[in-house]
Amino acid sequence: MPDTKQQFDKVISLCRDLFEKKLKDYGPSWRIMRPESVTDQIFIKANRIRCLETKGENMVDEGIRPEFIAIVNYGVIGLIQLALGFADTTDITNEEAIRLYDKYITATKELMYAKNHDYDEAWRSMRISSYTDLILMKLYRTKQIESHNGKTLVSEGVDANYMDMINYALFGLIKLEFNEE
What we know:
- The chain is mainly alpha-helical.
- Helices cover 73% and strands 0% of the residues.
- The chain is built from six helices and no strands.
- It has helices spanning 2-26, 35-55, 64-84, 94-119, 128-147, 158-177.
- The chain is globular.
């Protein structure tokens, strides 16, 4: 798994770098977003990836890669929002936002390492389009859980679904960055 860890660190650094640059442009303006709105933002990104995959062309000069990065970053934002609750204003500093980003991306990465061990890197044999479908499925699950005010009978919660979406997007980024598909 050493290659996997290096690859994860590489694609996470791409996502974090963009997150940090956007913080400089906009600040933590996303703090006003309710978790349901974060879920919908991720849905928009995943749905666009699926459209690009099925249509094979795009009218806007951005491809699949930036959308996977956005899914990672919005997923981390979702985890932060679940932990802090949404705010009526930008109530944290850029430095605090980065600290929280690092905390939640590290937790998500550690979950991936544990699952990766148990599943023996099965994701490497999957198609990028499967990651897209799995992210969309997780989004529909998340929307259902949100419609039940976050309560589940036997299933994982919204936070676990966000982490899974982040990891599927990171798998896609690894495949794209390292030309593995």
